[in-house]
Design brief:
mainly alpha; Rna Polymerase Sigma Factor, Chain: A; 2 domains; two-stranded antiparallel sheet; globular; disordered C terminus
Length: about 210
């Protein structure tokens, strides 16, 4: 018998992955919905455009679905999905950057404008390295945040708990919790900016 949504919500991520691998699309849908908010926030923090972020979260969802058999339970599903989202955003940044150069360098051929097909047919070693570096830097800097800020950031943006719940857990008012969350997000943004090259998040450096 098909489970309803509330029954799936009681399962762990690993249990949902196991069912999804067996062809249970409803289990996969629950997995994605469970992590959709944090995936979008991460994509938006990199791309700074809501439409682009939504597109790449959708692309990451399809890629996760297509390659779910490669998930080996060595890391959390949320970590695995986060890496896919980051990878998609990096490829978007690289594509947009090259498209801008093409716009400047369009070649007039008679009455036609010549363009180049910039779609990546295969990942280069540089792309793979960039993906790993961004993911490692992101997790490293979150872990290095002051405990006071890390805790509120983790509860709200990673665990996606409500602000009243976060405030109650911290023993502070909702207003104070919101203020602390803003400080935490600013702290993480500042930390990540230290790793950016002159072209921004597409050129994070260690």
């Amino acid at each position: 018998m098909q489970k309803n949504r509330s029954e799936y919500s009681l399962l762990t991520d690993d249990e949902l992955v196991t069912q999804a691998k067996s062809g249970n699309d409803a289990a996969f849908t629950e997995l994605i919905e469970r992590h959709r908010s944090i995936s979008f926030k991460l994509a938006f923090s990199i791309l700074r455009d809501r439409s682009d972020a939504e597109d790449e979260v959708q692309n990451a969802t399809w890629k996760a679905y297509s390659h779910l058999d490669q998930f080996n339970y060595e890391a959390k599903f949320s970590t695995w999905l986060t890496r896919i989202v980051v990878n998609q955003c990096l490829m978007r940044l690289r594509k947009d950057k090259r498209a801008k150069f093409l716009y400047i360098d369009d070649v007039q051929i008679g009455d036609e404008v010549g363009t180049l097909d910039l779609r990546d047919k295969a990942d280069t070693p540089e792309v793979d390295l960039g993906r790993r570096e961004v993911s490692e830097i992101l997790h490293h800097e979150v872990n290095r945040m002051p405990p006071l800020l890390k805790k509120v950031f983790w509860m709200r943006d990673i665990e996606e708990r409500s602000m009243p719940d976060v405030a109650e857990s911290l023993g502070i008012s909702v207003a104070a919790a919101k203020s602390r969350l803003l400080r935490a997000r600013h702290e993480l943004k500042t930390r990540l900016e230290k790793h950016q090259g002159r072209l921004g998040a597409a050129t994070l450096v260690g």
